[in-house]
């Protein structure tokens, strides 16, 4: 006897929507409609997985498909919104392309909040936050997340340290050496953040200011010199392996 196909299929497209989801009908238009209609060739009766960063993941079924818009019947909740590990990624902005990659991977790896940090050697002082959020949404759609990381406004390093709330460990990638990352992260408890500097690293005064923070822990990321975007992804991966939801 043939097995009953899974419903919805694993190949079902996923879509983030700004509207809080509940049973009923929802209209999809603009670029999202173009993607579903022109790229995915959606027809009436086809399923879509929807999530809203608030209520979880829902099943939508196409009830009307037009050239520029479609209607979906939201029928049931497939999953609750995920529990997000209490991890921030604080990193200096990088050039376009590299910062996009770092933001995308941070979302895929499960980071809860991303904070752009301006340092003395930061080469980029202006960020298109809307573009970065779009990269996070696309990453969440692809990797199955039901939560979008919070993206904070850029902040200067001095202000970040001045306003740091006690109790959140700040693991900073110290290019001059530190406790091996896995060892440091496995032994810590509670909320955490990872701080990664710019391509030129922190200067001496900045490094001293970070070390003066009671919650700061300098970490090492192995014997090789890593690009800033690689260091960010590596440090997050280590934390997730040591204390996160892996």
Can you give a write-up of this model?
The protein is α/β, with parallel strands linked by helices and 246 residues long. The chain folds into two domains: 14-79, Beta Barrel (Ribosomal Protein L25, Chain P); 87-242, Alpha/beta knot (3-Layer(aba) Sandwich). Helices cover 29% and strands 27% of the residues. The chain has seven helices and 13 strands. The strands form two sheets. Strands 6, 7, 8, 9, 10, 11, 12 and 13 form an eight-stranded parallel sheet that branches. Strands 1-3-4-5-2 form a five-stranded mixed sheet. Helix 2 (98-109) links the parallel strand 6 (87-91) and strand 7. The longest helix is centred in the middle third of the chain and has 15 residues, at 129-143. The model has no long low-confidence stretch (mean pLDDT 94).
In short:
This protein has 246 residues and is α/β, with parallel strands linked by helices. It is built from seven helices and 13 strands.
Q: What is the terminal separation in angstroms?
A: 37 Å
CATH topology of the largest domain: Alpha/beta knot
- The helix/strand class is alpha/beta
Radius of gyration: 21 Å
Low-pLDDT parts are none
């Amino acid at each position: 006897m043939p097995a009953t196909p899974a419903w919805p299929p694993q190949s079902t497209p996923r879509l983030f929507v700004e509207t809080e989801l509940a049973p009923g009908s929802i209209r999809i238009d603009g670029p999202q409609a173009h993607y579903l209609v022109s790229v995915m060739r959606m027809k009436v009766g086809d399923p879509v997985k929807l999530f809203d960063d608030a209520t979880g993941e829902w099943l939508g079924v196409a009830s009307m498909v037009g050239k520029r818009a479609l209607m979906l019947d939201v029928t049931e909740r497939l999953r609750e919104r995920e529990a997000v590990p209490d991890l921030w990624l604080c990193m200096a902005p990088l050039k376009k392309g590299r910062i996009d990659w770092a933001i995308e991977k941070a979302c895929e790896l499960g980071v809860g909040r991303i904070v752009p940090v301006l340092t003395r050697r930061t080469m980029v002082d202006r960020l298109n936050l809307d573009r970065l959020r779009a990269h996070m949404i696309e990453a969440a759609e692809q990797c199955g997340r039901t939560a979008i990381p919070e993206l904070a406004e850029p902040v200067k390093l001095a202000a970040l340290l001045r306003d740091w709330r006690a109790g959140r460990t700040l693991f900073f990638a110290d290019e001059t050496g530190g406790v091996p990352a896995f060892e440091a992260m496995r032994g810590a408890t509670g909320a955490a953040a990872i701080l990664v500097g710019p391509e030129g690293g922190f200067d001496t005064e900045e490094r001293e200011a970070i070390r003066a923070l009671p919650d700061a822990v300098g970490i090492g990321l192995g014997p090789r010199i890593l690009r800033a975007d690689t260091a960010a992804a590596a440090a997050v991966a280590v934390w997730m392996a040591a204390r996160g939801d892996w």
